[in-house]
Amino acid sequence: MKHKVATTINGRRHEDEVEPRLLLVHYIRDVAGLTGTHVGCDTSQCGACTILVDGKAVKSCTMFTVQAEGKSLTTIEGMAKDGELHPLQQAFWDEHGLQCGYCTPGMIMAAAYLLSENPSPTDDEIRKGLEGNLCRCTGYVNIIKSVRSAAKTMGGTAARPSEKSVAGRS
Hints:
The chain is an alpha+beta fold. The chain is built from six helices and five strands. It folds into two domains: 76 residues, Beta-grasp domain (Ubiquitin-like (UB roll), Roll); 75 residues, [2Fe-2S]-binding domain (DNA polymerase, domain 1, Orthogonal Bundle), CATH 1.10.150.120. Strand 1 and strand 2 form a beta hairpin.
Protein backbone atom coordinates (compact mmCIF):
# COMPACT_ATOMS: atom_id res chain seq x y z
CA MET A 1 0.00 0.00 0.00
CA LYS A 2 1.54 3.30 -1.09
CA HIS A 3 1.55 6.47 0.99
CA LYS A 4 1.39 10.02 -0.28
CA VAL A 5 4.37 12.11 0.83
CA ALA A 6 4.80 15.85 0.40
CA THR A 7 8.20 17.34 1.10
CA THR A 8 10.32 20.25 -0.04
CA ILE A 9 13.69 19.46 -1.58
CA ASN A 10 16.04 22.36 -2.26
CA GLY A 11 13.13 24.78 -2.12
CA ARG A 12 10.96 22.82 -4.56
CA ARG A 13 7.84 20.98 -3.39
CA HIS A 14 7.59 17.28 -4.22
CA GLU A 15 4.47 15.15 -3.81
CA ASP A 16 4.63 11.45 -4.59
CA GLU A 17 3.12 8.14 -3.62
CA VAL A 18 5.77 5.83 -2.20
CA GLU A 19 6.13 2.42 -0.62
CA PRO A 20 6.28 2.83 3.18
CA ARG A 21 9.73 1.22 3.39
CA LEU A 22 11.38 3.29 0.65
CA LEU A 23 14.55 4.78 2.06
CA LEU A 24 14.89 8.52 1.71
CA VAL A 25 18.20 8.21 -0.15
CA HIS A 26 16.47 6.14 -2.86
CA TYR A 27 13.58 8.58 -3.05
CA ILE A 28 15.98 11.49 -3.53
CA ARG A 29 17.98 9.68 -6.22
CA ASP A 30 15.37 7.60 -8.03
CA VAL A 31 12.15 9.58 -7.67
CA ALA A 32 13.32 13.18 -7.31
CA GLY A 33 16.22 12.56 -9.71
CA LEU A 34 18.86 14.24 -7.53
CA THR A 35 21.83 11.93 -7.84
CA GLY A 36 24.38 14.00 -5.93
CA THR A 37 23.36 12.22 -2.73
CA HIS A 38 25.30 8.96 -2.86
CA VAL A 39 24.61 5.47 -1.58
CA GLY A 40 27.86 4.30 -0.09
CA CYS A 41 27.26 1.48 2.36
CA ASP A 42 23.54 1.08 3.12
CA THR A 43 24.46 0.68 6.80
CA SER A 44 24.80 4.34 7.89
CA GLN A 45 28.54 3.95 8.39
CA CYS A 46 30.00 6.08 5.58
CA GLY A 47 27.93 9.29 5.47
CA ALA A 48 27.94 9.57 1.65
CA CYS A 49 24.14 9.98 1.81
CA THR A 50 24.16 12.87 4.30
CA ILE A 51 21.61 15.61 3.63
CA LEU A 52 20.02 18.33 5.74
CA VAL A 53 16.53 17.65 7.07
CA ASP A 54 15.04 20.83 8.52
CA GLY A 55 18.61 22.10 8.80
CA LYS A 56 20.06 19.08 10.62
CA ALA A 57 22.52 16.60 9.14
CA VAL A 58 20.87 13.22 8.57
CA LYS A 59 22.12 10.10 6.85
CA SER A 60 19.31 9.61 4.35
CA CYS A 61 19.85 5.84 4.28
CA THR A 62 18.61 5.73 7.89
CA MET A 63 15.28 7.43 7.23
CA PHE A 64 12.17 6.28 5.40
CA THR A 65 10.69 8.66 2.86
CA VAL A 66 7.38 8.72 4.74
CA GLN A 67 9.28 10.19 7.72
CA ALA A 68 10.15 13.19 5.53
CA GLU A 69 6.49 14.21 5.27
CA GLY A 70 6.24 17.99 5.62
CA LYS A 71 9.98 18.42 6.06
CA SER A 72 12.45 20.63 4.21
CA LEU A 73 15.37 18.74 2.69
CA THR A 74 18.59 20.16 1.34
CA THR A 75 20.85 18.05 -0.86
CA ILE A 76 24.20 18.92 -2.38
CA GLU A 77 22.35 20.23 -5.45
CA GLY A 78 20.66 22.83 -3.25
CA MET A 79 23.90 24.33 -1.93
CA ALA A 80 24.89 26.41 -4.97
CA LYS A 81 22.88 29.57 -5.59
CA ASP A 82 22.46 31.40 -8.89
CA GLY A 83 25.24 29.40 -10.53
CA GLU A 84 27.72 30.20 -7.74
CA LEU A 85 29.17 27.41 -5.65
CA HIS A 86 28.45 27.52 -1.93
CA PRO A 87 31.58 28.55 0.04
CA LEU A 88 31.97 24.95 1.24
CA GLN A 89 31.86 23.61 -2.30
CA GLN A 90 34.35 26.24 -3.43
CA ALA A 91 36.66 25.53 -0.49
CA PHE A 92 36.66 21.78 -1.21
CA TRP A 93 37.69 22.64 -4.77
CA ASP A 94 40.28 25.26 -3.81
CA GLU A 95 41.84 23.30 -0.93
CA HIS A 96 41.81 19.92 -2.75
CA GLY A 97 39.46 18.43 -0.17
CA LEU A 98 38.31 15.76 -2.57
CA GLN A 99 39.87 13.07 -4.63
CA CYS A 100 37.39 10.71 -6.25
CA GLY A 101 34.52 12.89 -4.99
CA TYR A 102 32.22 10.09 -3.90
CA CYS A 103 32.14 11.10 -0.23
CA THR A 104 32.29 14.83 -0.97
CA PRO A 105 28.53 15.59 -1.07
CA GLY A 106 28.03 13.96 2.33
CA MET A 107 31.13 15.66 3.76
CA ILE A 108 29.91 19.05 2.55
CA MET A 109 26.44 18.53 3.98
CA ALA A 110 27.85 17.42 7.35
CA ALA A 111 30.21 20.41 7.30
CA ALA A 112 27.30 22.74 6.48
CA TYR A 113 25.50 21.54 9.58
CA LEU A 114 28.66 21.84 11.67
CA LEU A 115 29.23 25.43 10.54
CA SER A 116 25.59 26.33 11.16
CA GLU A 117 26.06 25.23 14.76
CA ASN A 118 29.67 26.38 15.20
CA PRO A 119 30.81 29.02 12.68
CA SER A 120 34.39 29.00 13.97
CA PRO A 121 35.38 25.41 14.80
CA THR A 122 38.83 24.25 15.82
CA ASP A 123 40.44 21.44 13.85
CA ASP A 124 39.40 19.00 16.59
CA GLU A 125 35.80 20.27 16.39
CA ILE A 126 35.87 19.82 12.61
CA ARG A 127 37.12 16.26 13.03
CA LYS A 128 34.37 15.58 15.58
CA GLY A 129 31.73 17.16 13.31
CA LEU A 130 32.75 14.96 10.40
CA GLU A 131 33.39 11.74 12.31
CA GLY A 132 30.33 10.02 10.82
CA ASN A 133 31.63 10.54 7.28
CA LEU A 134 34.31 8.35 5.76
CA CYS A 135 36.67 9.10 2.92
CA ARG A 136 38.62 6.23 1.45
CA CYS A 137 40.88 8.37 -0.77
CA THR A 138 42.31 11.29 1.18
CA GLY A 139 44.05 11.62 4.50
CA TYR A 140 41.44 14.12 5.74
CA VAL A 141 44.05 16.90 6.02
CA ASN A 142 42.66 18.77 3.01
CA ILE A 143 39.08 18.09 4.06
CA ILE A 144 39.76 19.82 7.38
CA LYS A 145 41.55 22.64 5.56
CA SER A 146 38.53 22.98 3.28
CA VAL A 147 36.07 23.30 6.17
CA ARG A 148 38.36 25.76 7.95
CA SER A 149 38.68 27.85 4.77
CA ALA A 150 34.93 27.84 4.17
CA ALA A 151 34.27 28.87 7.77
CA LYS A 152 36.59 31.83 7.34
CA THR A 153 34.91 32.80 4.04
CA MET A 154 31.48 32.47 5.66
CA GLY A 155 32.37 34.84 8.48
CA GLY A 156 33.70 32.56 11.19
CA THR A 157 37.37 32.91 11.98
CA ALA A 158 38.08 29.17 11.82
CA ALA A 159 41.74 30.05 11.77
CA ARG A 160 42.25 28.86 15.30
CA PRO A 161 43.84 25.42 15.22
CA SER A 162 43.19 22.85 17.91
CA GLU A 163 45.38 22.72 20.97
CA LYS A 164 46.86 19.52 19.62
CA SER A 165 48.07 21.06 16.38
CA VAL A 166 49.37 24.13 18.22
CA ALA A 167 51.58 21.83 20.24
CA GLY A 168 52.79 20.29 16.99
CA ARG A 169 51.27 16.88 17.70
CA SER A 170 48.71 16.75 14.90
